[in-house]
Each structure stands twice: as C-alpha cells, then as structure tokens.
C-alpha cells in the first residue's frame, strides 16, 4: 500500500500521540508499504521545538523507512486555550504548500488523519476526495468534547460550529478508529455507523518494556535507597490530569522520610507544580525531565506505586497512554477514574490497580496508604499478563494493517 499520514505530533517525541504515530508509521514501512508523513517540528511535551530543528523551514527527511515532511509552526512558551488555537492553525497554514505539492505527486491509496487537531481532517479529507483515496480518521483525543468539558471553550456558537465540522469530517471518513470503548460509544453517538468503526488501542512493545528489579532501576542514579517507597508520576505535565493533587497528597506524607514522590516529565504545568512543592517545603518531592526511551523500563521499575490521574471532566475523552508502559513493566497504578468509564472498567474487571475518586486529595491519600502497606505482587503479575494479552504492539498493528488492506481490497473489487 501507499499510505499518507497527517498528524501534528511525530517521533522523536517521547510521549503522547507522536510516539504512537511514529511507531505505527515505522512498523508499516517495515512491512514493505510506502509511507509518508506530514507533521510538525517535534516540540511536545516540552512545548519547545527540539534543538536539531530550530531555525529550519520546510524539510523532508527519511526516518526508519518513512518519508517525513516537517513544516514550521508557532509554539507558545505558555500554553493557553487561545494560544493553542493559534498553534494548531499555524500548523495548518504551514502545511498548505506541502499539501499542494502532494496533490501533484503519485496517488496514495490510504490517507490516515490523526486527531487532534480535529480540523486537520479537512486537509486529509480534501486530499482523499481529489485523489480518490480512502480516508481513515484515528481519534486519540475527542478534542472538541474535551475543550467543552474542560472549559477551554465557553462560547456556545463556536462549540456548535466545531461539533458540526467534526461530524462532517467523521462522516467523510471511510473508517474511524479510536483507542477505547468509551471513545467508541461517544463516536457512535455522533451518528457514525458501527460498520465504519475500528478499535485500535494504544499499544506497548512488551519485548522492550521489561520487568526489572529495583536494583536495575534509576534509584541508585537518583540516590533513592532500595528499601524506600517511591510514588511515580511520569509523562506529560498538562492540565487534563489535575496534577496539583500530587503535591497536596505529598503533604500528608511529609513526616515519612522513606516515601518519595517522583514527578518525571515536561509540560505546561511543570513550573507551577515545582513552585507549589517549593512553597510547601516538600523535600521528598523530586522533579526529573523525561527519560530517553531506552531508560523507560528502568524508570518504571523505580516505582512501588504509579499514578494515573485524570480530571472528572476528561472521563472517556482521553485515555492515558502511560498506562500501557506501566502494565508492561508489571507496575501497580493508583488510578483516578469515574465508574462506568473505559478506564475504570479495565482496571476493575482485570484487577490491575487501585481505583480512586478523581480530584480528591483524601481519596488519593487513602489509595496511596493502602498501596504502600500491602503486597502488590498479585497486581504486578496481572498487569504484565494483561499487557501481553491485550496491548501487544505486534498484534495490534497487524490487525490495523489487515483493516487497511480490507478497505482497499473492497474498493478495488467494487
């Protein structure tokens, strides 16, 4: 197949959507398909263009068998709703010349649009129409729903326009995929027929993310005794998770010199979290930057307990991608989730961690006390088994590839 992918995030970004789009593209190319990607300069989650790409304009590079077209965009130092909108539209403006150039080249069989940003779908949809290609929309976040529920956009008329545009793009797509049952329910509720839907969860490379003992973790590098307890939050430090609750919970353990709270990541909330910890005099709260992928197993092995936190308003609109690595590493997560959401159901049904009420310091403190005073071995065993059975990178990507081949084969037959 000839596959064209549109997405604002891509490798070498270490977390979030870019990581998965990069791995998917590279995997498809390794199967012999011709793969091209139109994306931005890497900037996430630091919200800062990587040094290797600063000062460059439109560039094309070959990365692991994939042709990657990178376009310039505006990256705000401080992220707000208005600046994020400008950021996304600057990407669309930057990619317009590249989009025109692709129209003049040999047709791609399939166009995969990665959302968010959802309005990137107009470029993907118009290309598919003009070139007679099949359009697949892959939903990582329900962006418009999240903007409404998180209060990022309050103007009702604007929201109505955005929802109408989203519905148009979904109905223009030949297939729509997403990463959880909760998202599937919301997408089908927008009028999308189930025959168009593909379940395509985020995965983990269970051969790369291994079970490691604490002696091979980052504890020695960070000066943390092997017998001490570590509560780890690793990933994007954004606004969807309500991460200030970690600082509030750490205050309840301020008399425990053997309990360390480690926050490892980058994002818009990073400076605020550091300031809150400093103001409270919490010496047991440590901050570290994102670790390279080859250190991920060692990072995850550092923790006794992992934190997977979300706000109530983000329930089933986003699915925490960090959970896949935690489970593959045999970790025990404390998870804030509302009953009835996909996240709650997965953790509860398979007994993978400790569930707590979102946005509650008392609930988080109680969950941590419970986790730090019990044998977590059964959780760790079940976590690894779940990852191997349901989150295998090879299995999920093979199934997605089969869906793409079926879509194109059906088109040729009809």
From TrEMBL:
Highest taxon above the source species: Bacteria
Entry-linked InterPro entries: Glyco_trans_1, Glyco_trans_4-like_N
NCBIfam families, alphabetized: PRK10307.1
Record Pfam families: Glyco_trans_4_4, Glycos_transf_1
Name of the protein in question: WcaI family glycosyltransferase
Sequence ranges assigned to domain Glycosyl transferase family in this UniProt record: 218-389
Glycosyltransferase subfamily 4-like N-terminal domain span: 15-203
């Amino acid at each position: 197949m000839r596959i064209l992918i549109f997405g604002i995030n891509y490798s070498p970004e270490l977390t979030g959507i870019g990581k998965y789009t990069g791995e998917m593209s590279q995997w498809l190319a390794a199967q012999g398909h011709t793969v091209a990607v139109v994306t931005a300069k890497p900037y996430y989650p630091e919200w800062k263009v990587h040094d290797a790409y600063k000062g460059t304009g439109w560039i094309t590079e070959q990365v692991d068998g994939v042709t990657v077209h990178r376009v310039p965009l505006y990256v705000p130092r401080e992220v707000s709703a208005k600046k994020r909108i400008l950021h996304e539209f600057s990407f669309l403006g930057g990619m317009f010349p590249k989009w025109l150039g692709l129209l003049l080249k040999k047709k791609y069989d399939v166009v995969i649009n990665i959302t968010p940003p959802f309005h990137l779908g107009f470029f993907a949809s118009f290309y598919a129409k003009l070139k007679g290609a099949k359009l697949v929309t892959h939903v990582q976040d329900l962006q418009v729903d999240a903007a409404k529920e998180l209060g990022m956009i309050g103007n009702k008329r604007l929201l109505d326009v955005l929802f109408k545009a989203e519905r148009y793009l979904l109905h223009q797509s030949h297939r729509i995929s997403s990463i959880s049952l909760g998202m599937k329910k919301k997408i089908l509720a927008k009028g999308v027929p189930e025959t168009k839907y593909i379940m395509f969860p985020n995965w983990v490379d269970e051969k790369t993310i291994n079970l490691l003992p604490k002696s091979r973790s980052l504890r020695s590098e960070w000066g943390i005794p092997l017998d001490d307890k570590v509560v780890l939050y690793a990933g994007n430090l954004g606004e969807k998770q309500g991460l200030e609750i970690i600082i509030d919970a750490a205050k309840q353990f301020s008399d425990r010199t053997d309990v360390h709270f480690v926050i490892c990541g980058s994002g818009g909330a990073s400076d605020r979290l550091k300031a809150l910890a400093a103001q409270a005099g919490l010496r047991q709260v440590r901050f570290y930057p994102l670790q390279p992928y080859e250190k991920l197993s060692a990072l995850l092995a550092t923790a006794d307990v992992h934190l997977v936190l979300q706000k109530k308003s983000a329930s089933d609109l986003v699915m925490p991608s960090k959970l896949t690595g935690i489970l593959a590493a045999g970790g025990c997560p404390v998870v804030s989730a509302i009953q009835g959401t996909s996240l709650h159901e997965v953790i509860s049904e398979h007994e993978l961690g400790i569930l707590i009420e979102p946005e509650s310091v008392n609930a988080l403190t109680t969950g941590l006390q419970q986790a730090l005073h019990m044998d977590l071995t059964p959780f760790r065993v079940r976590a690894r088994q779940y990852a191997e059975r349901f989150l295998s990178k090879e299995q999920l990507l093979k199934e997605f590839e089969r869906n793409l081949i079926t879509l194109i084969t059906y088109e040729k037959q009809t």
